[in-house]
Structure formats: C-alpha cells, structure tokens
Amino acid sequence: MSTTSTATRPARARRGVAAASAGVVLGLTLSACAGATAAQQSESGKTVFRYQGGTGTVSYPELADDLGYFEDVELEWIGDVTGGPASIQAAVTGETEFGGAFNGAIAKLQSTGAPVTSVISYYGADEKTFGGYYTLEGSPITSARDLVGKKVGVNTLGAQWETLLKEWLAREGLTPDEIAQVELVVVPPVNLEQTLREGQIDVAALSGVVKEKAVDRGGLELLVDDTDLYGSFAYGTYLLRDDVIAKNPDAVEDFVQGTARAIRWAQTTPVEEVRERFTTIITERDRGETTDLVPYWKSSSLPTPGGVIQEEEISVWVDWLEQDGQVEKGALQVDELYTNEFNPYADGTFAPDAGPDGEEVAP
C-alpha cells in the first residue's frame, strides 16, 4: 500500500447519477453551487477559512494555527458542530470553507455531484485510540444477533457508526431484514454515556475522548471496536469545495501543509506535551469550555505521517455504498474523490518519516 498516492482533482462530469436516497443532499448541493463564492481576504491580506469546531477539543487546523504553521490562511471560527454530516453540509452550502466527516458520508455526498474534494485525513483508529459499541456490564447483549430489536445510540445517522454497525452485523451473518430491526437512536455524543447508563438505549457507539472518559468510569463492556473490523485505519477526511480549491490554490496548499505538519507534530511529540498545548489553546480562546476531555487524548489515531490519504480508506466505503444499494455501481471513481497533491508528506516536500518541519525523526 502506498502512502504517497496523489489522486488528481475530480472531473465531476464523469460521475453517474446518485441513488434516490441522496436526493435531499443533491438539492442542497445544487442550491449551494449557485451561491458559492471565493474565500474572503482578511485585513492582513490572508485568505479567511471559516470553520466549525468542537466543544472542549482542538482540531488539527486549530493546532496548526497555534503552532504558526499557516502563512497565507487565517481561520475564523463560526461555531461548533456535533456531527460530520452537518460539518460537510456547511462546507457545501458555503457557510464554511472546509468541513470534516466520515469518508463514507463524504462519498455519499459526492455521489450527488457535490463539487467537493477530500484533501487530508484527520481521524482514525489505532491501538491507543479507537471507538466501539458498548453495553452495560451484565447486559444480555453479547453478540451481533442479540441486537435485533434493540436500540443503538449513535451521534448521527448516515455516518461512521451506522455504517460500521451494519458492516459488523452483516459479517456476523445477519440478514438485511434482521439488520433493519436494529433501531438507531441519535444522541449527542456528550449524552451517549448517560443515555446508556439510564437504560434509554441498549448499546452506545462511543469514540474519542468521550469513550475514554466513559470507560474510565467503569461499568461498561465492549461488544466490538473499529480496529476489530479494519485494523489501524483513517476514517475521516477534511474536504473543500472545488471552487475554493480553484480560486485559492495557494491558500489551499497552505491550509493542507499546515494541517499536515500539525498532525505530524502530534504524532512525534510526547503525549503530555500535546495535552498541555491543547489545554492552553482551549483556555486562551475563551469560549466558556472545559478542558476536562484533554487528559483522555492518547494519539493522533492516524496511520500515515501527516494524514496522507490512502486509497483504500476511500474505496472501501464506495464499495460498501454500492453493495448496499445507496450508490449506483460505477457512479464514483475513487481517484476523483480525494487528492494528496497539497500534502508535504505525499508530494515529496517531506520524507514520509520526517517531522513537522521536515527534519528526520527517530523511527
């Protein structure tokens, strides 16, 4: 597997018509295309990239900004978001310049003809950082089949945890009719643990620092985690609209290189130092947040240096969507959905094992 694949920018005309289930997103996409404009310039002459953040967490673009890795880009926070689908919809409609989500949700969006391209991975799973489906200790639910007729709490529909659940159930031999009997309940991430402990749902999909905090309190049992299904793997990417890429190529290159270097900084810096930096960033931005989640950060969760996108991290979900009937077979060409051309760890600027400034790092 190569970590230096450089897919070209997408040729949207070669894409097929999306499945009917994507019609709502298609309408949203068409209205967005009519009103999309170039990114604005700040008083200092930098290109402004509006974005949505996460309460009590630090994203890699925010880390890059704090580390001084951007030269041409100025970030503008417009609020927080709780799920990937909402994040990428904001990017499509022009509310923000970039958004991030599960790659399967992005592929579904792209199947509608949405003019967006993934440019860098930003979250995944590894041996230190992973998510999974949890029950309460002593629950009679111990297998995939036990979920038939039960309620599973997820942060949003049409994203990673719905897709992974269906994949696991299918691998365990459940029929489509049986899988349809597993009820998905949308619960905000910060409320998933409490909702599970109160018995309002039977299983909760927990990930990130929210999962770490819940597990630390005890009383939970893991059914299956995402590394059981795909191993060390990147699950989500940041995307930009193609008009942003076309009209602001220098700023886009700066955004990706800075974000990649921030990811690499987190990958090569001692955990405690990363946590200290996150705490400082959250405290100094003064949004009335808590830093309680920071101590639960363990790793970048990304398998490649600087978030370089690997083809199979996209293709596996395209295949899944086709098999599930959500996307017409052949409607999506994987190499048109993403690009590594701006990433210094893929385009030859930095060696794959280099640090955030191109210096050699210990293996």
TrEMBL record:
Residues 63-272 form the SsuA/THI5-like domain. The keyword DNA repair does not apply. Keywords: Signal. Pfam families: NMT1. The keyword Signal applies. It comes from the Bacteria. InterPro entries: SsuA/THI5. Residues 1-34 form the signal peptide. PANTHER family: ALIPHATIC SULFONATES-BINDING PROTEIN-RELATED. This is ABC transporter substrate-binding protein. It comes from Isoptericola peretonis. The lineage of its organism: Bacteria, Bacillati, Actinomycetota, Actinomycetes, Micrococcales.
